[in-house]
Specification:
- The complex is a heterodimer of chains A (181) and B (409).
- Chain A is 30% helix and 24% strand.
- Chain A has 181 residues and is α+β, with helices and mostly antiparallel strands.
- Chain A folds into two domains: 44 residues; 128 residues, Rieske Iron-sulfur Protein (3-layer Sandwich), CATH 2.102.10.10.
- In chain A, the strands form three sheets. Chain A has a four-stranded antiparallel sheet with strand order 5-6-7-8, with no helix packed on it. In chain A, strands 1-10-9 form a three-stranded antiparallel sheet, with no helix packed on it. A three-stranded antiparallel sheet of chain A has the order 2-3-4, with no helix packed on it.
- In chain A, a hairpin with a 4-residue loop joins β6 and β7.
- The N terminus of chain A is likely disordered.
- Chain B is an all-alpha fold.
- Chain B folds into two domains: 245 residues, Cytochrome Bc1 Complex, Chain C (Up-down Bundle), CATH 1.20.810; 106 residues, plastocyanin oxidoreductase (Helix Hairpins, Orthogonal Bundle).
- Chain B is built from 16 helices and two strands.
- A two-stranded antiparallel ribbon of chain B has the order 1-2.
- In chain B, α3 packs antiparallel against α5 and α14 packs antiparallel against α15.
- The radius of gyration of chain B is 24 Å and the shape is globular.
- Chain B starts with 8 loop residues before the first helix and ends with a helix.
- The chains are: A alpha+beta (181), B mainly alpha (409).
- Chains A and B meet through α3 and α4 of A and α3 and α5 of B.
Amino acid sequence: MADAKMSPAHGAGAQAGGTRRDFLIVSAYTFTAVGAAAAVWPFVHSMNPSKDVLALSATEVDLGNIAEGQSVTVLWRGKPVFIRHRTAAEIETAKADDGAGLPDPETDAKRAKKPEWLIMEGVCTHLGCVPLAQKGEYNGWFCPCHGSHYDTSGRIRKGPAPKNMPIPPYVFLTDTTIRIG
Amino acid sequence: MSSNGFTNPIVKWIDYRLPIFTFMKHSLDEYPTPKNLSYWWNLGSLAGVFLVLQIVTGIILVMHYTPHTTLAFDSIEHIMRDVNYGWLIRYLHSNGASMFFLCVYVHIFRGLYYGSYKAPREILWMLGVIIVVIMMATAFMGYVLPWGQMSFWGATVITNLFSAIPVVGEPIVTWLWGGFTVDNPTLQRFFSLHYLLPFVIVGLVVLHLVALHQHGSNNPLGIDVKGPQDSIPFHPYYTIKDMFGFAVFFVLYFYWVFFNPNYLGHPDNYIQADPLVTPAHIVPEWYLLPFYAILRAVPSKLGGVILMFAAIFILFLLPWLDTSRVRSARFRPIYKQFFWLLVIDSIVLGWIGANPPEGIYIVIGRIATIYYFAHFLIIMPLVGKLERPLPLPESISKAVLKAQPKAAE
């Protein structure tokens, strides 16, 4: 009833296909939605990595003590990072396989800035287990969880994992020190 | 299936199996509410909003907090400095507790003024008293969690209240502490209960609402709804009115949160708990001050504890201590004045609670304590019998219509 009485007074608005009341309702709901989203954001964002977690996202490693054929595993962002001082034979195999039918094609030169140092995240790209070193059919890494085989460049060759093990961002600070992250 | 009256086929299908839409319609659309409710009736739903807000902010805080004496204090600083918007969520939570109590206290005084505790709403009222008691326990335990000096010594003082109980007092306190002093076991159980009790409150609030919906809201006239002309549907009339009140109240809330977030707290709680040093002046949060004043007014340990608990439990007896059959103080010229005296007395008790127990403060505290109990035990029963109430209007509708021409003039 109130609507019927009011609409003649707001005839101009009604002509455009909506009354002034429609406009008020739509804008009120819109502002409510914007306000609700703005109110929810701090709660959602509070669950993102906090400042102290982000502060841990760089790790420096001294490579001087790692002899050829040895590996060390360091922790970066809570994940293992494999640092392998590869042998000449491993490098050779890795480069030779650049053209083999790789599930996730990538050249060895792209994966190792310096061929003797392979630095990669030691996390299987299937479901996140840590693969075992110098195991598997390609003498690289083998994931015991679901049987993924990686070669000496950490590339996936066989098994359920879809991708090569990722290379983290790193730089050589000197010839024997790197910073990961 | 057509009987539920919904047109949307999905709503219809669900409602036939699980009548949530019928329930919502019944408790919002069809729920008849007295048409003369004032803004004093906003505080109940507003308290509900704060309950939800405390639970939501609390759940987020728990994601970053560590309940251990060696880590608790640092984890609070971690929340304040490292966690994204952690400062905001913590200030919302700590000031939210104060605003929750403010809503509930105004809600209680509203009930006292308009006689909302009288038949047939006694159980509704008593459920409310239980809610506020559990709220106090929850708030107290929450205040312990930051493990600052006030946390530690507040916990020590309050738990020691139970040592006043004859014979079993000491064993009970040891049991509460899980040791020989407030320590890690105490902190961890307080944390557990601080997480549990809000959900107990939610359950009690549901019962509070069931009891409310049985006979509907009281109203400023304190007379029953006599027919459809006296009521309007809760939705949209009171949902929109509640939302307006909510927006106004949140201006106050956000003043504290954004401009004065530590005003209602105590600076000593930013000093880590030290079992070897008691702060010079221990005060609880403002919402517990009147009860703290009553505790200190009595020169006996056991007596003080009993009176402090009695101060709140006396509210249970209110429906029977008030002998007047007229609900609203609007028609009770004498009681109305005593009501305001009780309000002043409660504020005086709060002020005394914030001051050290010495000199004139003790005297005022004692007088105010005696008056507090006299109000309920002597004044209320007597005034109900002796007072001559003003004539009640015939109905809510009549009273509203009679007021209308005046308003138009």
